[in-house]
Amino acid sequence: MKTFMQRKEDVQRDWYLVDATGKTLGRLASEIAKILMGKHKPTYTPHVDGGDFVVVVNAEKIFVTGKKLDKKIYYKHTLYPGGLKETPLRKMLQEKPEEVIRLAVRGMLPKNKLRDRRMRRLKVYAGPEHPHKAQNPKPIEL
């Protein structure tokens, strides 16, 4: 019997809805990364992008343990001299809660050519509303 290898023409993509209310940031991000890669499917093949779409709602209600709200710092550089910007997690959650989940999931995906393609299938929204009702996403508990 031959080993099954999925082809990109055979990929069937589903839509999943995840509610981030009260969920721990890292644990949620790792489960979302598995769905984006397609590791939850029996047809998983490492070199084929066979993952599904994930819609995350209530990103502003994410939970972090310990003192990470003040101690975790996000770094960004403007590419100008002295342009290093440091933003604590507490401020990021107030201004851009979607970006917190997006960066956590991005860090948990493999660093290869498929990462950007997988990240395009992640849709994150701060509140409970999302514009993807037509795709009929299945609620999933992580």
From TrEMBL:
<protein>
    <recommendedName>
        <fullName>Large ribosomal subunit protein uL13</fullName>
    </recommendedName>
</protein>
<dbReference type="GO" id="GO:0017148">
    <property type="term" value="P:negative regulation of translation"/>
</dbReference>
<keyword id="KW-0687">Ribonucleoprotein</keyword>
<dbReference type="Pfam" id="PF00572">
    <property type="entry name" value="Ribosomal_L13"/>
</dbReference>
<dbReference type="InterPro" id="IPR036899">
    <property type="entry name" value="Ribosomal_uL13_sf"/>
</dbReference>
<dbReference type="GO" id="GO:0006412">
    <property type="term" value="P:translation"/>
</dbReference>
<keyword id="KW-0689">Ribosomal protein</keyword>
<dbReference type="InterPro" id="IPR005823">
    <property type="entry name" value="Ribosomal_uL13_bac-type"/>
</dbReference>
<dbReference type="InterPro" id="IPR005822">
    <property type="entry name" value="Ribosomal_uL13"/>
</dbReference>
<dbReference type="GO" id="GO:0003735">
    <property type="term" value="F:structural constituent of ribosome"/>
</dbReference>
<comment type="function">
    <text>This protein is one of the early assembly proteins of the 50S ribosomal subunit, although it is not seen to bind rRNA by itself. It is important during the early stages of 50S assembly.</text>
</comment>
<dbReference type="GO" id="GO:0022625">
    <property type="term" value="C:cytosolic large ribosomal subunit"/>
</dbReference>
<comment type="subunit">
    <text>Part of the 50S ribosomal subunit.</text>
</comment>
<dbReference type="GO" id="GO:0003729">
    <property type="term" value="F:mRNA binding"/>
</dbReference>
<comment type="similarity">
    <text>Belongs to the universal ribosomal protein uL13 family.</text>
</comment>
